[in-house]
């Protein structure tokens, strides 16, 4: 069975780019453009991989990691950030993907 991926990012073009890339790798891909919609989606779909923007119009990906972990505890999480931020190293199981997004780097994270 194909792995399921949810992308939560308000940049629709970026979602489309990543979705196209992942579909070519035989993954099932779903997108949401806000934190509220994304949280509902991960509850419904229970993805294997979550790709979430840090700066969403209705909240911060980083600030909501514990909530996300409570919903999908075994999911691989990739947090996208436009800033060269030094996120706390307390959450060792979260990958950070900086914008501009490198699809080659993303490939290593989903492998």
UniProtKB/TrEMBL annotation:
<dbReference type="Pfam" id="PF00072">
    <property type="entry name" value="Response_reg"/>
</dbReference>
<dbReference type="GO" id="GO:0000160">
    <property type="term" value="P:phosphorelay signal transduction system"/>
</dbReference>
<feature type="domain" description="Response regulatory">
    <location>
        <begin position="4"/>
        <end position="111"/>
    </location>
</feature>
<dbReference type="InterPro" id="IPR050595">
    <property type="entry name" value="Bact_response_regulator"/>
</dbReference>
<feature type="modified residue" description="4-aspartylphosphate">
    <location>
        <position position="53"/>
    </location>
</feature>
<protein>
    <recommendedName>
        <fullName>Response regulatory domain-containing protein</fullName>
    </recommendedName>
</protein>
<dbReference type="InterPro" id="IPR011006">
    <property type="entry name" value="CheY-like_superfamily"/>
</dbReference>
<dbReference type="InterPro" id="IPR001789">
    <property type="entry name" value="Sig_transdc_resp-reg_receiver"/>
</dbReference>
<keyword id="KW-0597">Phosphoprotein</keyword>
């Amino acid at each position: 069975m194909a792995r399921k991926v949810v992308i939560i990012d308000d940049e629709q073009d970026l979602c489309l780019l990543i979705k196209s890339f992942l579909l070519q790798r035989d993954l099932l891909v779903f997108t949401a453009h806000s934190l509220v919609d994304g949280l509902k989606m991960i509850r419904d779909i229970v993805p294997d991989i979550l790709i979430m923007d840090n700066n969403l119009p209705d909240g911060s990906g980083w600030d909501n990691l514990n909530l996300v972990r409570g919903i999908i505890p075994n999911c691989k999480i990739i947090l996208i950030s436009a800033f060269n931020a030094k996120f706390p190293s307390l959450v060792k199981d979260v990958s950070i993907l900086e914008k501009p997004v490198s699809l080659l780097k993303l490939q290593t994270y989903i492998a």
